[in-house]
Amino acid sequence: MTDWPAIIAADFEPPREPALPELANELLEVLGSPDPALRDEQAYPVLTAWILAGHLDDRLNGLGEQVIGMLADPRIQARTFAALILAAIVHRDTTAAVLDAPALRRWTDRFADWWLAETDLRGWDDQLGWLHAVAHGADVVGELGLSPRLGADDLTGLLDLACSRLLSPTSYVFAHQEDDRVALAMATVLARPELTAAAATGWLEAVRRDFEAARPGPVPAAAANTMRTLRSLYLMADRGFRPDPGEDDRYLPPHRAEILAALSHVLNLAFPHQL
Fold first, then answer.
1. N or C: which end of the chain has fewer CB within 10 A?
2. Cα 41 to Cα 27: distance, rounded to the nearest angstrom
């Protein structure tokens, strides 16, 4: 195996040998490793650094196809870390326009199919480490939300996708800030000027129907996850947010007043004491 710690120590400088395509394939395989140290601390940071630095621009379309294929891998860690790499690929395209537009749209559909169907939502596993299907998927949604290749209809679709993911039945209650990650992704989409006020709030209709249909008894996990996410989204829409923590500027959605009013209405259905 390649000495990845040495590459990290050399500020992620790619070695002369072997060739980058071969190294990228090795990194993709390591992303499926059950060893979280190899996956989190070596394969993920190296591959992401090379993607964002442009070292893999000439083969980024092919790499994207490989990553999309990994979303069907039987290993949960391979699926969820494939999503993280997809987020990095989309980010690189946003800054450098190196992807084929039809490929990005195809990948968006394939990603959506996986994210909605994924049932293993554990954030952390004592043996496998971080898995985070919901959070990693949210990162993809956030990067797609920044992509200039996506228009108003695509952005509306991303909001509907995130809402459907929240409302999908599950027994897993968010425990590792998945709510914040999904809220950030949705806030990023809502900050796009292409969205009308109706599109920026229309996705909440599904939440309203779900909350109004609630029956007495324990709060279902999906409902609890949705409430937490909407509260976090309310804060970001009200006070602003930074997609990149290194940025100084805050983002605010163009239809801030309408979004806050719609969020308030839905949240009050769940807990009427809220304003």
1. C
2. 12
The three-class DSSP label of residue 146 is: helix
Residue with tokens 């999309």, as numbered in its chain: 68
Q: Are residues 107 and 127 in the same domain?
A: yes
Query: Coil, helix or strand for 1?
Result: coil
Cα–Cα dist 130/134, whole Å: 11
What is the pTM (predicted TM-score) of this model? 0.97
Residues 116 and 158 in one domain: no
> What b-and-e string marks burial along 37-48, b requiring 16 or more CB atoms within 10 Å of the CB?
ebbbebbbebbb
Which structural domain, as residue segments, surrounds residue 60? Answer: 1-148
| In contact, 208 and 184? CB cutoff 8 Å | no
Residues 2 and 119 in one domain: yes
Give residue-wise pLDDT tens across range 160-196: 999 999 999 999 999 999 999 999 999 999 999 999 9
User: Residue 186: how many CB atoms within 10 A of its CB?
Assistant: 29
Q: How many domains does the chain have?
A: 2
Amino acid at the residue 266: V
Return d(Cα 164, Cα 184) in angstroms, integer.
16
**What is the greatest pairwise CA distance in the chain?**
64
Q: How far apart are CA 81 and CA 87, in angstroms?
A: 10
pLDDT, tens digit, 9 for 90 and up, residues 20-59: 999 999 999 999 999 999 999 999 999 999 999 999 999 9
Do 163 and 126 lie in a common domain? no
Within 8 A by CB and 6+ apart from 31, the residues are 39, 43, 44, 47, 70, 77, 78, 81, 82, 85
